[in-house]
Fold this sequence. Notes:
The protein has helices spanning 3-6, 93-113, 134-142, 166-175, 182-194, 203-212, 216-219, 230-233, 235-241, 344-357, and strands at 11-18, 25-32, 36-43, 46-56, 61-63, 75-79, 85-89, 151-155, 158-165, 198-201, 225-228, 252-262, 269-278, 282-286, 297-300, 305-308, 326-330, 336-340. The protein is α+β, with helices and mostly antiparallel strands. A hairpin with a 5-residue loop joins strand 6 and strand 7.
Amino acid sequence: MDTSKKNTVLREGFLVKRGHVVHNWKARWFVLMPDKLLYYKYEGGKRDSSQRGKILLKDCVLTCPFLEYENRPLVLKLQTAHGVGHFLEACSREERDEWAADITAAADKLRSADGGKTPNQQEPAGSQLHNIDLSKVLDSMYDVHSGIKMSNHVEQGSTYYNCFSGSAVVDWLVFMQLALNRVEAVTLALALLEEGFLRTVGLRSVEALRTAGLSEQFMDDSTALYSFADTLKKKGSVKAETSLSAVELSGQVIKRGFLLKQGHRRKNWKVRLFVLRSEPAFLHYYDPTKDDLSPAGGFSLRGCLVSSLDDNGVPSGVKGNIQGNLFKIITQSDTRYFIQAPSHQEKMDWIDAIREQT
């Protein structure tokens, strides 16, 4: 295959991928090439230029649909020649089947170029992938009897309540046999921090994180302070605020897709699965990283105004890196939603579909 053909983009878009070491789901931007599937993180509205990973298509085996995840019916499984399974979720059945068809076609081309050998489906000997569910680790940390002990710490004259030191987290993970040794425990603790399950507390921790990034040395330190993320402390009350009536979700689904939504409070951009329904006309959005089947939010489209935003400059109310394809929805109660589509065409399709329902 010549290089120019190898660099052809066959398809691109959002898929939600299950992590290997930690089995959590993350929205990633996927780019299908003739011989591999690349994936990237999306920061703000921009694709991170550093590639997060690649899946080689030579001798891969595709299972579509893959129905082992009860709450995720739109998953396909891609197993590489080395027996490593990748689980990818699309936003709709059509989208899943299109990805599957394009991946299969690319893999078939590679196979025929290679003389038509059948793929090897053997699991590699001694594959060292750990199956760790971060949310279960977090639940154990919360446990009243055996969880991590929280206390008050004084640092540079300030008192920090309900927190624990980095080395206490590492001690606890080893003691609970969630990690074999301190090195593994540090990796796991950093994953909890990266996922936003834990947060840094106190000037020293925040400063070290800012300058050194997520550093191993700093995590296993008795002076580094952490606590559970604020959002998790209110686990009970968050659900109650967003409980939605069955009527809202009873309409016919007109359109589904992954779009970027700007948060109301933190103004950060997150990939959300948007579902447009009619009769009654509602737009709901879901967090694709969670197995929760209820929406993270939504609103009635009655009396809504939807407008395309110019790609020149950053409109007021919008923060962070944006790459264009922006549109705005103003609800009847004057709440403003800023949304980015992955392409101009998708933006126009969504605007048209929403307008038909207002």
